[in-house]
């Protein structure tokens, strides 16, 4: 058996010894190849480049850009092969095999891109679930807002501010659900209840001297100050979104939900 490599695709081709000097087709790319007299490590020359390209189309239709790219790679590959042979060196075709992006790889990238766009479109259009205020959650928040925690001033303030911030954040989550008058009616009772909870005044918390806090108390107050600012910002974003849908819904929220009426955007 005689073995050699195809210059077009670098596939190792084998032929019977009685095929020496005859022309055969590459089993992979259908290029016309002349069988050498003995096995060689360099690629065999292509006998008819034009015919090889025509036969190669049987594996799939190539557009004009593909054909031009293939020819350019072929010429560069042939030139490098001749240069290597003139120097008595072995020709390395590996760098030419990586010159073009394989069709399968390109197809995979396109599929991934389409899926990514599809998932993102679904993310943008997916329905927002409604956050339901259960009696258990409401009672838990009420208990924390009215805390009498006597372990320390820090524990007292931590429990109170945690419930206050949670109530405001839940109002923001419920607002995300609203995009129609019907949905506003559906969640109005929960919004009113959470607003009442978030505005509860705790005498023990009000009695804390915040002008001379210790470092631990100062750190805690700073943490909740940032959390409160973030939750209020979220409320304003949702109110503006709802206003773009129907300003009448925002007027109703401002009149019936004190926490929303106290936002900075309504104080100017």
Describe the structure.
With 268 residues, the protein is mainly α. The chain has two domains: 2-123, no CATH class; 135-266, no CATH class. Helices cover 60% and strands 6% of the residues. It contains eleven helices and five strands. Strands 2-1-5 form a three-stranded mixed β-sheet, with no helix packed on it. β3 and β4 (32-34) form a beta hairpin. α5 runs parallel beside α7 and α6 (153-177) runs parallel beside α9 (215-245). The protein is elongated and about 105 Å long. It starts with a strand and ends in a 7-residue tail after the last helix. 21% of the residues are buried.
Concise structural overview:
This protein is mainly α and 268 residues long.
Supply the helix-strand structural class: mainly alpha
End-to-end separation in angstroms reads: 93 Å
Number of domains: 2
* Oligomeric composition of the shown chains: single chain
Helix content: 55-70%
Radius of gyration of CA atoms, rounded to a whole number: 38 Å
| Spatial sequence of strands, sheet with the most strands | 2-1-5
Report the sheet with the most strands, covering strand number, pairing sense and barrel closure.
3 strands, mixed
Number of helices: 11
Tell me the fraction of residues in β-strands, as a range. Answer: 5-15%
Shape: elongated
Identify the notable features of this structure and list them briefly.
elongated; 3-stranded mixed sheet; mainly alpha
Topology, element by element:
Blueprint (H helix, E strand, L loop, with lengths): L1 E5 L5 E4 L7 E3 L6 E3 L8 E2 L4 H8 L7 H23 L7 H4 L5 H23 L9 H11 L7 H25 L3 H18 L4 H4 L8 H31 L1 H10 L1 H4 L7
Parallel strand pairs: 1-5
Antiparallel strand pairs: 1-2, 3-4
């Amino acid at each position: 058996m005689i073995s050699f490599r195809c210059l077009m695709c670098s596939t190792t081709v084998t032929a019977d010894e009685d095929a020496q000097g005859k022309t055969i087709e590459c089993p992979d790319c259908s290029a016309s190849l002349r069988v050498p007299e003995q096995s060689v490590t360099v690629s065999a020359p292509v006998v008819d480049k034009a015919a090889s390209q025509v036969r190669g189309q049987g594996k799939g239709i190539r557009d004009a850009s593909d054909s031009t790219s293939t020819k350019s790679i072929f010429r560069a590959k042939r030139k490098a092969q001749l240069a290597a042979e003139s120097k008595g060196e072995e020709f390395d075709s590996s760098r030419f095999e990586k010159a073009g992006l394989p069709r399968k790889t390109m197809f995979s990238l396109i599929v991934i891109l389409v899926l990514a766009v599809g998932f993102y479109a679904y993310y943008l259009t997916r329905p927002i679930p409604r956050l339901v205020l259960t009696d258990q959650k409401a009672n838990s928040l009420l208990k924390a807002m009215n805390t009498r925690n006597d372990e320390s001033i820090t524990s007292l303030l931590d429990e109170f501010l945690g419930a206050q911030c949670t109530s405001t954040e839940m109002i923001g989550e419920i607002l995300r659900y609203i995009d129609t008058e019907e949905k506003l009616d559906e969640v109005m009772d929960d919004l009113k209840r959470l607003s009442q909870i978030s505005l509860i005044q705790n005498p023990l918390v009000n009695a804390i001297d915040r002008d001379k806090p210790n470092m631990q108390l100062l750190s805690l107050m700073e943490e909740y100050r940032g959390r409160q600012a973030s939750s209020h910002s979220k409320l304003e974003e949702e109110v503006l979104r709802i206003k773009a849908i129907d300003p009448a819904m925002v007027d109703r929220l401002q009149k019936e939900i004190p926490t929303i009426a106290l936002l900075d955007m309504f104080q100017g």
